[in-house]
Design brief:
Length: 248
């Protein structure tokens, strides 16, 4: 199964279209963190079936943030199976699409001459990047904490969107960073820990503050929204990303 790799015991990275989904397994039960593009639903489903499970075995759907490239299987599984969707209290309204904090086609026009931008746009369009989807009844993280397979702990990392969240998996020293910290992106020339190109961010400036919340976590495996998993103390990865973002 090429689109599925186990980055730590019972923690799986699933590759969608230039974007990652994460499966947490606890016995027969699963948690899905992020769901790729609408066109990545099949990839999510086949990864789950490769683990010998069914989408119905997912107990909860978690969203780092309500951008279309992370919502695909989350919205689909919610609709098809009634699995609850949880996200940050601030992000719930974004998920409903009361407003949209996402770059759209016109934001990329000034970049079209750059190498790789047009093929990337065409590829994500085929994956459903221009579809309009929402989840009307997403839930805010319970104040008492999440009780889901894999024991994910939300870490507020507001900035990329107003309610962006990372998820810490303390027993395995893993942090799912979403788009607060990535390791590669088709529009980035560098690999390794970095911020996304600024065109993707809603709240410029806050993305730097969000990194401070990651740096204090006890984690040495980074599982980002975009790019491969990285084994490195998260404080070091944050320091590298900060160096690089201040360099340009
Ligand atoms: Zn993203």
């Amino acid at each position: 199964m090429t689109n599925l790799d186990e980055v730590a015991p019972n923690i799986f990275r699933v590759q969608g279209t230039h974007v990652n989904m994460v499966i947490l397994r606890d016995g027969d039960a699963l948690t899905l963190i992020d769901g790729g593009y609408p066109g990545d639903v099949g990839a999510a489903e086949s990864a789950i079936r490769a683990l010998g499970r069914r989408p119905e075995d997912v107990q909860g759907l978690l969203l780092t943030h309500a951008h279309i490239d992370h919502m695909g299987a989350v919205a689909d599984f919610h609709e098809r199976y009634g699995i609850p969707v949880y996200t940050d209290p601030i992000e719930v309204a974004h998920l409903r699409r009361d407003y949209l904090e996402q770059a759209t086609g016109k934001d990329f026009v000034p970049m079209l001459h750059r190498h790789g931008v047009l093929p990337w746009l065409l590829r994500i369009a085929r994956a459903g990047a221009t579809k309009k989807i929402s989840v009307r009844d997403g839930l805010a993280f319970p104040a008492t904490g999440l009780d889901l397979p894999g024991a994910p702990v939300p870490v507020a990392t507001h900035g990329h969107t107003s309610g962006h969240t990372a998820f810490h998996l303390p027993q395995h020293g893993v942090v799912v960073t979403g788009d607060a910290l990535v390791t590669a992106h088709p529009l980035s020339k560098i690999s390794g820990p970095q911020l996304l190109p600024p065109v993707f961010d809603h709240g410029h400036g806050d993305t730097a503050a969000a990194l401070d919340h990651l740096a204090v976590l006890d984690a040495d495996i980074i599982l980002p929204g975009h790019g491969p998993a990285l084994t490195m103390p998260v404080a070091d990865a944050v320091a590298r990303a900060q160096e690089r973002s201040s360099a340009h």
